């Protein structure tokens, strides 16, 4: 089942968050059988060329893993260029209200439903399937809005209700910072905010996602009602595995020489 169908059916999906530039990282994630990868071009040095290479690498694994792109901003020019690479969908940061959400959705849709420009690209097999792609894209592109600002939180019910928006993403770090409680993920006010975002999404029968690290945090967010999740990042997996191996070696040497 395609990712967009999985999420619209409110079924669970698990992804890996990628910020490193090497396409092998995307390919490895796909080989591991993740449902999707998030290609981050907001807080990384990645470019549109990187997105294309990572999308190709994801597809090359042949596992059914799909790529979605975390945009640098809710910008229609960036959105149309990203979608022309053939990724499954896009995630917009800093969606503050329903108007932002509607503008985001419209930028992903061809007329008359939106304002996305029509052009041949990788998404339409470089024009070989242009007619089919244009006819289907408005219903097949996945759209996820990030709720991470104080304004976005205050308008979350209106954002969730926007037609054509497929789901919400709660960014714990940004949301906690913007609510004046950075990193206080166990605090009652933050957990109340989480509940409100989840309830807003579910009231519209839409899934909600977050980024979680480690078993305890993953299990907690699953219990809080999140439908799909990015379970760590490529850099956190690399650092965690490397740190564990380094510590294991040092402990073994200390035991031998002790």
Could you please describe the fold and organization of this structure?
It is built from 12 helices and 8 strands. It has an 8-stranded parallel beta barrel, surrounded by 7 helices. The mean pLDDT is 97.
Distance between the termini: 55 Å
Number of strands: 8
Round the Cα radius of gyration to an integer and report it: 19 Å
Mean pLDDT: 97
Shape: globular
Q: How can the largest sheet be summarized?
A: 8 strands, parallel, barrel
In short:
With 258 residues, the protein is α/β, with parallel strands linked by helices. The protein has helices at residues 3-8, 23-31, 48-60, 76-83, 98-107, 130-140, 150-154, 156-160, 172-178, 188-203, 214-223, 234-257, and strands at 13-18, 36-40, 66-70, 89-92, 142-147, 167-170, 208-212, 228-233.
Features:
12 helices, eight-stranded parallel β-barrel, 8 strands, alpha/beta
Helices and strands in order:
Blueprint: H1 3-8, E1 13-18, H2 23-31, E2 36-40, H3 48-60, E3 66-70, H4 76-83, E4 89-92, H5 98-107, H6 130-140, E5 142-147, H7 150-154, H8 156-160, E6 167-170, H9 172-178, H10 188-203, E7 208-212, H11 214-223, E8 228-233, H12 234-257
Parallel strand pairs: 1-2, 1-8, 2-3, 3-4, 4-5, 5-6, 6-7, 7-8
Helix pairs in contact: 2-3, 4-5
